[in-house]
Amino acid sequence: MTALPLIRPATVADAAGIAAVHVESWRSTYAGLLPDRYLVGLSAKVHERRWQALLTGAGGAKRRTYVMLDGEPNPAGGSSQIVGFASCGPQRTGLTGYGGEFYAIYLLDQVQGKGAGRRLLATMAQDLLGQGTQAALVWVLRDNPSRFFYERLGGALLAEQPISFANTRLAEVAYGWTDLLPLSRLAAGPHVGS
Ligand SMILES: CC(C)(COP(=O)(O)OP(=O)(O)OC[C@H]1O[C@@H](n2cnc3c(N)ncnc32)[C@H](O)[C@@H]1OP(=O)(O)O)[C@@H](O)C(=O)NCCC(=O)NCCS
């Protein structure tokens, strides 16, 4: 029987694992949305260094990051493989009424569609509530079908704005939750260390 993946707060030691998921998931998610050259050029080493900085709180950032680990026992006795991650913290874009923001949520293709995203989002909702934040939003590319994941989990469409990224003009939309409590209750299954 395959065990349910575990979610725990990330540490600096997770930087390489997060970077690997970051690069693989970006290539898969943004193919056709971002230029091939940009996606091919994504470097796990570069992102590992960025994640090391983020996870040490460089610059005073209040980002909090969670990793999802596959539930399979590791024969080598080391840490399990990171198959997804998510980050949240204070809202950065100035939309009033939403103190928190879900900055990122990325899963490897093979673990998508099995409830892992719901559990990670619920974990972040619990985190924000624990910080005294009742409401949060997320920005997502308008043409990313994952936006419907947020709709399915109760996010209300708040705003749309143009964005320029990797020399590409895009549009992003914001989804918001005015009460994180129902979202926070969607987390079921093993959850450690939060
Ligand atoms: C978006 C993502 C985190 C969702 O995680 P997931 O594990 O695949 O989603 P879940 O299985 O937890 O789905 C929860 C619910 O949302 C629905 N859902 C998930 N993705 C959906 C999609 N693209 N379109 C419509 N509904 C979707 C599921 O059907 C499920 O509904 P149910 O309650 O009726 O069963 C994951 O698919 C992912 O990593 N995508 C690529 C990266 C990405 O785009 N991240 C967001 C960047 S802002």
What does this protein structure show overall?
The chain is an alpha+beta fold and 194 residues long. The protein has one domain (6-184): Aminopeptidase. The protein has a 7-stranded mixed β-sheet with strand order 1-2-3-4-5-7-6. The mean pLDDT is 91. The protein contains 6 helices and 7 strands, in the order E-H-H-H-E-E-E-H-E-H-E-E-H. Strand 6 (156-165) and strand 7 (168-177) form a beta hairpin. Coenzyme A is lined by residues 25, 29, 105-107, 112-118, 140, 144-146, 148-149, 152.
Number of domains: 1
CATH superfamily: Gcn5-related N-acetyltransferase (GNAT)
Q: Mean pLDDT, nearest integer?
A: 91
Number of strands: 7
Q: Report strand %.
A: 25-35%
Helical residues, percent: 25-40%
CATH class: Alpha Beta
- Identify the strand order in the major beta sheet: 1-2-3-4-5-7-6
CATH fold type:
Aminopeptidase
Largest sheet: 7 strands, mixed
* CATH architectural designation: 3-Layer(aba) Sandwich
H/E series, N to C? EHHHEEEHEHEEH
Query: Which ions and ligands are bound to the chains?
Result: coenzyme A
- Class of secondary structure makeup: alpha+beta
Shape: globular
Radius of gyration: 16 Å
In brief, what are we looking at here?
The protein is α+β, with helices and mostly antiparallel strands and 194 residues long. The chain has 6 helices and 7 strands; from the N terminus they run βαααβββαβαββα.
Which key phrases capture this entry?
single chain; 194 residues; alpha+beta; Aminopeptidase; seven-stranded mixed β-sheet; 6 helices; 30% helix; 27% strand; globular; binds coenzyme A
